[in-house]
Amino acid sequence: MRRFTSVGLVSSSHHIGGGSGAIIAAATANDQLVTPPHSPSSSAAATTSMTSCCAMQSARRHLKMAKSIFGFYLGRQGRRAYPFHRRPHMKNTASMNLSVPHFWSYATTKCQANFLPEENYITGDWTGKLFVSSRQVYTLQHSTSGAKCRMKRFPSVHEFNNPSRWNIGKELYSLSKPRMDLIDEQMLTKKQRLDYVKAGLLPK
């Protein structure tokens, strides 16, 4: 242990002059000159070293942190590539092109030899059924028979009033767009209201 001795304190090991008079404290020969801890240069150095240490630790910590849900399962850094042809969002836009031999089957059953889906057949007691399934396929009977064809399309109900043979083979949900019957004008901005007026959905 190093002892710091000051003039006011008595050093028991060394007496200069040998008398009981003036006693001057001296540091032992083994003791080195140590800068007192409150000097500005030492505190700055200590602060710098602490900061660099903390920065290293935090950098290491951020490498370990999970940035996404995959980070909990995947332990590697860098670009997390999806497996081949397994991206969650479809990027093959060429498959949406209307090619000439297949344009007639766009949004239709690809193979016309297949049976109609189950929704087209009465499989149970349909008494009082007001709506047909939106997965029904429009057939010749829809356009020929005078029966009402209604389909739920949130937030309203779509009713097929104009029978057309062009609709044959298409699923009902692809023939209508969701549209509000009642428009809450309090919820509209001025621009939205103007657009509705231009479209003829609201009076001026």
Architecture overview:
The protein is mostly helical. It is 19% helix and 5% strand. The protein has three helices and two strands; from the N terminus they run ααββα. The chain has helices at 40-64, 140-144, 190-198; strands at residues 149-153, 156-160. A hairpin with a 2-residue loop joins strand 1 (149-153) and strand 2.
User: What are the segments in which pLDDT stays under 50 over at least 5 consecutive residues?
Assistant: 8-13, 20-29
The rough form would be described as: elongated
What proportion of the residues form beta strands (DSSP E)? under 5%
Give the structural class: mainly alpha
Strand-and-helix sequence, N→C?
A: HHEEH
Instruction: Give average pLDDT, whole number.
Output: 72
- The percent range for helix content is 10-25%
Major beta sheet summary: 2 strands, antiparallel
Total number of helical segments?
3
Task: List the strand order in the largest sheet.
Answer: 1-2
| Head-to-tail CA distance between termini | 94 Å
Q: From the alpha carbons, calculate the radius of gyration and give it in angstroms.
A: 43 Å
Instruction: List how many beta strands DSSP finds.
Output: 2
